[in-house]
Automatic annotation (TrEMBL):
Family membership: Belongs to the GtrA family.
This protein's UniProt keywords: Membrane, Transmembrane, Transmembrane helix
Protein name: GtrA-like protein
One Pfam family from the record: GtrA_DPMS_TM
Primary residence: membrane
Annotated GtrA/DPMS transmembrane domain residues: 7-123
GO cellular component terms listed in the entry, alphabetical order: plasma membrane
InterPro entries: GtrA_CellWall_Glycosyl, GtrA_DPMS_TM
Origin: domain of life: Bacteria
Length: 127
């Protein structure tokens, strides 16, 4: 339960990064391409937090391999996240002020998928 709580904290910080980057990118790229950029920034942020604080991986892990696995598995939860986000944006024709709510809906919908994949596939190093 403690791991899931820390995972949620990392996700909250990732959400804030996601929203900040999205609001900046939306001005130039629109809400969909902007979200791809902001999602990538959030994945990097949550990986750094989760590897250090949630799953406490050892320094022996290959950072490149671990990040590759984390990013790849994040696509599973990310697909749920982005599809939910896009459905809300398209269905409600949201203005930029409401985009953070759509990001929150997408983020919550993908969190459990991401946690299970991270716990059982990415951070599986001997302690």
């Amino acid at each position: 339960m403690k791991q899931f709580g820390m995972f949620a904290v990392a996700g909250t910080i990732g959400y804030l990064v996601d929203v900040a980057v999205l609001l900046l990118c939306n001005l130039v790229m629109g809400p969909h391409i902007g979200r791809l950029v902001s999602f990538s920034a959030a994945v990097v942020t949550t990986w750094l937090i989760n590897r250090r604080h949630t799953f406490s991986t050892s320094g022996d892990a290959s950072l490149r391999r671990e990040f590759s696995r984390y990013f790849t598995t994040s696509i599973g939860g990310g697909a749920v996240n982005l599809l939910s986000y896009s459905a809300v944006v398209n269905a409600l024709n949201l203005t930029p002020v409401w985009l953070p709510l759509a990001v929150a809906f997408g983020s919550l919908s993908g969190m459990t998928v991401n946690f299970l994949l991270a716990k059982h596939f990415v951070f599986t190093y001997p302690k």
